[in-house]
Design brief:
Number of strands: 11
Number of domains: 1
CATH architecture: Beta Barrel
Number of helices: 5
Oligomer: single chain
CATH topology: Sortase, Chain: A
Strand content: 15-25%
Radius of gyration: 31 Å
CATH class: Mainly Beta
Order of helices and strands: HEEHEHEEEEHEEHEE
Length: about 300
């Protein structure tokens, strides 16, 4: 009997030893997995930090290159001059008190396109928006992708450049001429277009004008609508089947405006549209519309 008890005790001890060994193995495995998990988090965090620093450094480099290009252009190619004798008022209103008559008195911008086209043959115009930092040559190619990540000198640059929609005729303006640019956080490109939604911008009447010069003519465009909107394609429509369709389009854009400019638009008007991303995520757009009010042949 005693011998059986001893055997039983021995077996129990062995079972306990085996159980303890298994428990220690499980604990060791859990500790290893836990340590590996923490190690993995640390490694991934370091990778994310390095990646973020890389993006920030590249962002700053791209901004500096784009700003340098802009300053070199501004210093040599831009001037404003009084209206010439060959200037033409476009679709003037009958109301003599309309603000139209105030804006057509503004000086136009004249650009030396010979030098700009030597730097980049894709140059089709030069745009300036009062009350913003927008003061750039405009380029155009056969798609709307190239200048999203190429600068004016065609070098790769995530700041991109200011470009016209490939569907637009930049010599004989169509119903809706569209200009794009990135909304950079440092206010380069179309980054400062967000200013138009601030009261400090739209409370200044002298800001309601876009000056646009092309190799064939200088033009003035009077602002009639500003707003932000989710991503859509309606406001960048360029072709219209009927005048009624175009009129509906114009009135829709006007009614969207955050500010009432008391500016009438009709089917005899040609408009220009400026569009940029509202935020880094690109979930919305900031948009400006203006109508052609004056032009002069160069």
């Amino acid at each position: 009997m005693n011998q059986q008890k001893r055997r039983k005790n021995i077996n129990n001890k062995r079972k306990n030893q085996i159980k303890n060994i298994s428990t220690r193995k499980v604990k060791s495995k859990n500790i290893f997995l836990k340590d590996f998990f923490y190690f993995l988090i640390i490694v991934l965090s370091i990778i994310m930090i390095i990646f973020s620093l890389f993006k920030i450094i590249n962002w700053n480099i791209d901004n500096k290159k784009a700003k340098k290009l802009q300053m070199e252009i501004i210093e040599s190619d831009i001037e404003e001059e009084p209206t010439k004798d060959n200037s033409m008022n476009v679709n003037p209103p009958e109301n003599e008190l309309d603000d139209y008559w105030y804006y057509i008195k503004m000086d136009m911008m004249s650009i030396d396109f010979n030098e700009l086209k030597e730097k980049n043959p894709d140059t089709v115009g030069f745009i300036k928006v009062n009350g913003t930092n927008i003061n750039y040559p405009v380029v155009q190619t056969d798609d709307n992708r190239f200048y999203l990540n190429h600068a004016f000198d065609k070098s790769i640059n995530n700041a991109g450049w200011i470009f016209a929609d490939y569907r637009n005729d930049m010599v004989n303006f169509g119903k809706n001429t569209i200009i794009y640019g990135h909304g950079r956080l440092n206010n380069t490109m179309f980054g400062s277009l967000k200013n138009i939604l601030k009261s400090s911008w739209y409370n200044n009447k002298d800001n309601y004008i876009i000056k646009f010069s092309t190799p064939t003519e200088n033009t003035l465009w009077q602002v009639f609508s500003i707003y932000s909107i989710k991503v859509e394609s309606y406001y960048i429509t360029t072709d219209f089947n009927t005048l009624d369709e175009y009129n509906t389009f114009l009135q829709t854009l006007k009614n969207r405006s955050q500010k009432n400019f008391n500016t009438n638009v009709n089917v005899n008007d040609k408009i220009i549209t400026l569009s940029t991303c509202q935020d880094v995520a690109g979930s919305g757009r900031v948009v400006m519309h203006a109508k052609l009010i004056k032009k002069e042949v160069r």
